[in-house]
Every structure is written in C-alpha cells, then in structure tokens.
TrEMBL record:
It comes from Melastoma candidum. This is Uncharacterized protein.
C-alpha cells in the first residue's frame, strides 16, 4: 500500500488497512488490522504511523499496537506505532509499505511480517482469538480505507491522498499485489466472484477495483476528501 498523511484533528481517524476477521458482519468478534493510520487521539500527532489493532476473546478485549498484553514482539527494530517519516506525493514519488500476515502451521500463531523481505515483527498468539484459533482461520479478508470523524468533529477526514481515484495510481490510496491463501495453500490473487466492493458514501469517497493487472497484480484504488454528512 502507498502511505499518505491525510489531515486529521481531534478524534478524527484515517487509515489504509488490511483486516482478517471472524464474527458477525456488523461487528467483528475476532480480528486483526494492519496498515498505516493518522490519529491525533491515538498517537498524539498528525503523522502517519505503522498501525495495528486486534480484537479477541468475546470481542471485548484488544488494543492498538502494543498498548496492552497481546502482540509478542520478536524484532526490536520494528516498533508498532512508529512514525512514517516519508509519505507519498500526489502525482509524484510514492512511499510504500508491504505487509504479510500468516498463520504458523505448527503453533497456529498469527505472524506479522513487514517489507518486501518479509521481516518478522512478531506475532499474535492464537489463544487471543478463539474464533480464529487452530485451523478455523478467518472468515473474511478486507482491504481498503477506514475513516472516523469523532464526537467533536462535524466532518469526516480525508482518506488517502484526499482525492478520489482516477486513472493515475499516484493520485490516490492504492493497494497492489493483493494475495491470500486458504488452508496453507499457495498464495494467489482473489477471483472476481470472491470479492465485494463496499463504499459507504460515494459523495465523500471513491473506490475502483481494477482486479488483476499486468503491472501491479491485483489493484484497488480508493480515497477522497471526506467532509460533512459522510
């Protein structure tokens, strides 16, 4: 995914996220979220941060990054919640982040790897997620953007670059080379019949699902300016 720093204030939240989840469609009971986020309320500034969130047990436990017991850090050089000092330029140089989430076939723990070299940052123990423990796995995978406006803000924040996607991939938030695996099979791109395109408010944000492409693998583009009534 490419990294942006949309303007957020107060409790506004804007992120590009990969989500593995199990539970009712209207509210995940167990889930893992990974990507980047801008959240002054969580991080104390308006920078883009390496973002993770998990929800476990009966849905009542979990937290951001390492703010509660859960995630086990194995690489001290990778800090969940760390700042991305460089972000993408509209139409220019794109700063990117690579994420890889796998389940260890022996321990059943959920492993987070970062970068093209798949450097292992750590793992979430399988015991945190009773609905995804063992061979149950996740029932849903989601890729895209999330925004929240907060109680004190009247407008929803921008998503990604703050522009809706167009024909130039450097103009919006994108995710490329989307791959997944089931039951420890080979990684592959999704088929069209396996995907749903969900856009909550087309006035404020846009979504283009390009599917499998020659240059970028499986590609989606999303984002927008936000605003009132989003």
């Amino acid at each position: 995914m490419n990294i942006w720093s949309p303007e957020c204030k107060g409790e506004q939240f804007s992120a590009s996220v990969i989500r593995l989840a199990t539970g009712p469609e209207t509210g995940d009971t167990n889930g893992i979220y990974v990507g980047w986020a801008v959240s002054p309320a969580v991080y104390g500034d308006d920078n883009a941060h390496l973002f993770t969130f998990w929800k476990g047990g009966d849905g009542s436990t979990g937290c951001y990054d390492m703010r509660c017991p859960g995630f086990v850090q194995t690489d001290k050089g990778i800090v969940l919640g760390d700042v991305y000092n460089k972000t993408s330029d509209y139409g220019g140089i794109q700063q990117v982040a690579d994420f890889h989430i796998t389940q260890d076939p022996v321990t059943k723990n959920w492993i987070l790897s970062i970068g093209k070299e798949e450097r292992q940052a750590g793992y979430w123990p399988t015991e945190l997620f009773p609905l995804m423990a063992g061979d149950k796995g996740a029932t849903r995978l989601s890729f895209g953007g999330i925004t929240m406006r907060g109680i004190e803000q009247e407008e929803s924040p921008p998503m990604g670059s703050g522009y809706k996607p167009d024909k130039d991939a450097r103009h919006s938030a994108i995710m490329i080379q989307i791959l997944f695996s089931g039951n420890y099979s080979e990684f592959r791109a999704p088929f069209d019949y396996e995907t749903d395109n969900i856009l909550d408010n087309s006035k404020c944000y846009g979504l283009n699902n390009y599917g499998q492409t020659d240059d970028y693998g499986y590609l989606i583009a999303f984002g927008g300016p936000g605003g009132p009534n989003c």
